[in-house]
Amino acid sequence: MDKIRIVGGNELKGTIPISGAKNAALPLMIASLLTEEKLILENVPRLADVALLQRILGNHGVDITTNGKRNGDDPYAGQTLEIDARVIVDTIAPYELVSKMRASFWVVGPLLARMGVAKVSLPGGCAIGTRPVDFHLDALRALGADIEIDAGYVLAKAPRGLTGARIVFPKVSVGATHTALMAAALARGESVIENAAREPEIVDVADCLIKMGARIEGAGTSTIRIEGVPRLKAARHAVLPDRIETGTYAMATAMTGGDVMLAGARPDLLEDALETLRHAGAEIDATNEGIRVRRNGAGILPVEVSTAPYPGFPTDLQAQLMALMTKAKGRSRITETIFENRFMHVQELARLGARIQLDGDTAVVEGVERLTGAPVMATDLRASVSLVIAGLAAEGETMVQRVYHLDRGFEKLEEKLSRCGAEIERISG
Ligand SMILES: CC(=O)N[C@H]1[C@@H](OP(=O)(O)OP(=O)(O)OC[C@H]2O[C@@H](n3ccc(=O)[nH]c3=O)[C@H](O)[C@@H]2O)O[C@H](CO)[C@@H](O)[C@@H]1O
Ligand SMILES: C=C(OP(=O)(O)O)C(=O)O
């Protein structure tokens, strides 16, 4: 299995192009199931999760053409997918595929709304918490679906179609909001989603659905209104920039010191995280090109942060912030409120010399003078990249194993960092 080898100590200097957002690209690809006409998605990142979803959609009969043509010489330009879901040959999403990636469960809403039936495996075991799907199923039930669970599969039926309804989520859920939004787009009559997730990726999906002819108001607020339409049509949409990738490289720069332009990044998508970085001593400037991050000379200052649904500090940047705080001048407190078990990086960061105590849902991080390289391994995507950030500032060699987690969510990670001066390489084997 591949590994990432890092020799820490170099400042980051240069430009890092920001890719399209994984967490928008996935539901956007799934939205293609809602229409018999072609959906063209631009700026889709080249990631393992995207490739897996291509296989899952292919299994339903969806035809996807990848236009690999680059923008001039730009090796970092996103790919364009032409997605044709005219014929759905199979409404079953099997365990072998769904168990590998949670977002693949989200095919349930569009399949049910368009085909009147869907059989989708419950998502597999996850490394960051139990992650049930009850809100998704309750939303589909509210829209009139009959739902049974049998042998690890959700069997959803609505032979006469879905009917608009009021859906009130007990807790903010990104995935359940996607499910409700996509299903309601083809339901008869009006639906109202209350306590909806406000994440930019929800807005991106809603914008694309509107281009496809859906009638949606309020995406980006807690109340989304949808007037169902009988069918959706062809559209072309560009995936928004990845705010988590942006925040990750911003933290890497704050960690090593230096001066990096995050090209194509949009500051409005991660204001809370950028504010946290300013408190930590980084200089952050929005420019026409993207976001410029600098830390010159001054050390890293400790922060107190709680993760929260958007617009709060994202749980998907919690591990990266913790890596940064391992070298802060003082004690930080980082509280995880979204997932009950998203601290697996703590033990691995400790292998590099970090001093972190867990107190329930809060990690108390005592900054240390120096980290020292070591072999490490993580069990999820963001935890893995937190080890990369720590490795960039550790003395000596850090070897990050289980690279497939990184490949799920970070396009060309080692290239993007090494062209900014990091000593980082992939070792195949
Ligand atoms: C592909 C994608 O976009 N993944 C993101 C999405 O995951 P995902 O959509 O799975 O996360 P949710 O927003 O649904 O999870 C929020 C909380 O709600 C709980 N919950 C969720 C659904 C449900 O039916 N029942 C239930 O109890 C979850 O266990 C969790 O505690 O949002 C998370 C929170 O921002 C991010 O960390 C993930 O990167
Ligand atoms: C947790 C994540 O993804 P997923 O929801 O696909 O597990 C993530 O992107 O950090």
From TrEMBL:
2-(S-cysteinyl)pyruvic acid O-phosphothioketal PTM positions read 126
Cite the CDD domains for this sequence: UdpNAET (cd01555)
Annotated residues for binding of UDP-N-acetyl-alpha-D-glucosamine: 102, 171-174, 316, 338
Query: What is stated as this protein's family in its record?
Result: Belongs to the EPSP synthase family. MurA subfamily.
Q: Which reaction does it catalyse?
A: phosphoenolpyruvate + UDP-N-acetyl-alpha-D-glucosamine = UDP-N-acetyl-3-O-(1-carboxyvinyl)-alpha-D-glucosamine + phosphate
State the organism's lineage: Bacteria, Pseudomonadati, Pseudomonadota, Alphaproteobacteria, Hyphomicrobiales
Keywords, comma-separated and alphabetical: Cell cycle, Cell division, Cell shape, Cell wall biogenesis/degradation, Cytoplasm, Peptidoglycan synthesis, Pyruvate, Transferase
Q: What does this protein do?
A: Cell wall formation. Adds enolpyruvyl to UDP-N-acetylglucosamine.
Active-site residues per Swiss-Prot or TrEMBL entry: 126
Instruction: Provide the protein name.
Output: UDP-N-acetylglucosamine 1-carboxyvinyltransferase
- Report the InterPro entries cross-referenced here: Enolpyruvate_Tfrase_dom, Enolpyruvate_Tfrase_sf, MurA_subfamily, RNA3'P_cycl/enolpyr_Trfase_a/b, UDP_GlcNAc_COvinyl_MurA
Name the predominant localization: cytoplasm
Q: Where in the cell is it found?
A: Cytoplasm
